[in-house]
Amino acid sequence: MKIRSASIDIIADHREKNSGVSEALCTQENVTVEIRSLQLGDYRVDNLLLFERKTLPDFITSIKDGRIFRQGVQLASSSLRSVLILEGTSESIAKSGMRREAIQGALITLSLCLGIPVLRSANPEERARLILYAARQVKSFAVDSLPRRSIRPKGKRAVQLHILQGLPGVGPKRAQLLLSAFGSVEAVLAASVEDLNKIEGVGKITVQNIRWAVSESENLYGENRESIFLV
To answer: pLDDT tens across 172-224, in order?
Structure first.
């Protein structure tokens, strides 16, 4: 059977119901789409790929409030191969007023540190085509030969350390210190500034970077939050 004629099963989160993507996907041959509530991601494809979709304005807002880093850690922890799709044009970035370095820093953290590929689409129709193209491309490989399977760390602790190293300012040594002190990635993300400061060897700036990255408060550390991340 040719890969292009193989069936592709997609679960789309209910929040994507009126995005136009589900309709575009349903018009494709041998593609089934089910609308349901997903705890993580916006599109689950063939139980292999997990797509998180963000418009560029939402992506920029999620950098400001730290949401993108929490979501990135969750996506990196998934058993599926996670992908971030950014939708929109560069005009949205220009209008945001956010420093280019802050946006680049977030993209580096997501793609290089957390290992989440970042793809671009201009509109919902292109997003639908991108999801299908990616699914067919992945299905052209044997599951065991996917690159992620060969480079992902093995063992729970190794995966936890890998995820923690995706936080700004946290390298292998600090990841070890944090995991030993708090016992889990979730506990590190939930830790207060006071608790983080008790860990010798982590450092005040790194503590601020961590709390900035995972805090929901857009005003944490004031208007200098982008420069904190870049320290």
So the answer is: 899 899 999 999 887 888 888 999 999 999 988 888 888 877 664 444 444 44
- Three-class HEC string of the chain: CCHHHCCEEEEEEHHHCCCCHHHHHHCCCCEEEEEECCCCCCEEECCCEEEEEEEHHHHHHHHHCCHHHHHHHHHHHCCCEEEEEEECCHHHHHHHCCCHHHHHHHHHHHHHHCCCCEEEECCHHHHHHHHHHHHHHHHCCCHHHCHHHHHCCCCHHHHHHHHHCCCCCCCHHHHHHHHHHHCCHHHHHHCCHHHHHCCCCCCHHHHHHHHHHHCCCCCCCHHHHHHHHHC
Going from N- to C-terminal start, the domains of the chain cover: 3-149, 153-230
Whole-model pTM?
0.65
Architecture of the domain delimited by 153-230 = Orthogonal Bundle (1.10)
The architecture of the domain spanning 3-149 is: 3-Layer(aba) Sandwich (3.40)
